[in-house]
Design brief:
about 350 residues; globular; binds glutamic acid
């Protein structure tokens, strides 16, 4: 939890592997991410150890409301503003907002983002994480003069971010050749039928039904131009990094590369667009949602898309240019920019805190 640049911001994760250490790492990344995206926020995160795949709708509601009851005294529209993360969604945000509102005695939509449109959500929040990453790939394509039809993409993780990214990329003419979820995936060198794959995943719960069946590790080792880890932390480690052949990696997940694997890939010249930049589209549109909740004035979808595109292009170029200028990785460049912005805010707050201690 850090609030030097503004209220803490970050998602709430429901997952069996949630731990205190993980939540702290994720909150740290949110602090940096909000600075990279230049949003007036610090970073925070929340988590509940549970397995939504085994819970009924009513159980999910009870956990969501119970969790909000226990954190209501530490969150707030100008204090800490949660959002969705792995296995939480707009419905969960609605329950939590409603619960919080009943505790404080008035409706407070801006206490949480990623809500359903009917309860103060923003248009364009649902695909914002993927879209933010997609706009950055469009910038990369321009810088590197990539031919979309010849640019092959493999997506590791087929939840919200992975599915929307596949859809946006395929729609724009890129060649999505592989996708997988935790149970395995499919590969077709001529390109997948993404719309059908999304339908299959959502009706059958699995990525299957076309191309050749492959494992998650096989997918990481495909000879593609762009690899998109879109699941959880520590997907690419020292045990499997050697086989990675992609030229570019777009980290739609948080922390998908371990530090040593990241170094090894960078040494081999693989360009990774780091999570704190690559997936910042989600929290950026969360910021737009919060702004709309505060003002009560709701935007058209085109406004959201246009503002997101402008921001992603600007911050991507800033990181890219610093990387080129100093011959450093995009991750180092993104951290440098974030730390500069945090230091500036810290300096501007003055010294009262230092003397109080
Ligand atoms: N959970 C998302 C992330 O890791 C979104 C956070 C937010 O919208 O506040 O960036």
């Amino acid at each position: 939890y850090a609030d030097t640049r503004g209220p803490a911001k970050g998602g709430i994760r429901f997952h069996p592997d949630v731990s205190r250490a993980e939540v702290m790492a994720l909150a740290f990344w949110m602090t940096i991410k909000c600075a990279v995206a230049n949003l007036p926020y610090g970073g925070g995160k929340g988590g509940v150890i549970c397995n939504p795949k085994e819970l009924s709708h009513a159980e999910m509601e009870r956990i969501s409301r119970g969790f909000m009851r226990s954190i209501a005294h530490v969150v707030g529209i100008d204090v800490d503003v949660p959002a969705p993360d792995v296995y939480t969604n707009a419905t969960v945000m609605a329950w939590m907002m409603e619960e919080y509102s009943s505790i404080v005695g008035h409706r407070e939509p801006g206490v949480i983002t990623g809500k359903p449109i009917a309860l103060g959500g923003s248009l364009g929040r649902n695909d914002a994480t993927a879209r933010g990453g997609f706009y950055q790939i469009e910038e990369l394509a321009e810088i590197k003069s990539l031919d979309r039809a010849k640019t092959t993409i493999a997506i590791h993780g087929f939840g919200n971010a992975g599915q929307y990214f596949a859809h946006l990329a395929a729609d724009a003419g890129y060649k999505v050749v592989a996708a997988c979820d935790s149970r395995g995936g499919v590969y077709d060198e001529n390109g997948l039928d993404v719309a059908t794959l999304i339908e299959t995943k959502n009706s059958k719960g699995r990525v299957q039904g076309q191309g050749k069946e492959i494992s998650g590790d096989d997918l990481l080792h495909l000879d593609v131009d762009l690899l998109v880890p879109a699941a959880l932390e520590n997907t690419i480690t020292m045990d499997n990094q050697e086989g990675v052949k992609a030229k570019y990696i777009l980290e739609l997940a948080n922390g998908p590369l371990t530090n040593d694997a990241d170094d090894a890939l960078a040494d081999r010249g693989v360009v990774a667009i780091p999570d704190i930049l690559a997936n910042a589209g989600g929290v950026t549109v969360s910021y737009y949602e919060w702004t709309q909740n505060k003002t009560g004035f709701y935007w058209e979808l085109e406004d959201v898309h246009q503002k997101l595109r402008t921001k992603m292009a600007k911050e991507f170029r800033a990181v890219w240019d610093l990387g080129e200028q100093k011959s450093i990785t995009l991750r180092t460049a993104a951290y440098a920019i974030a730390l500069d912005r945090l230091a500036e805010a810290h300096e501007a707050t003055g010294t009262a805190d230092d003397f109080a201690r």
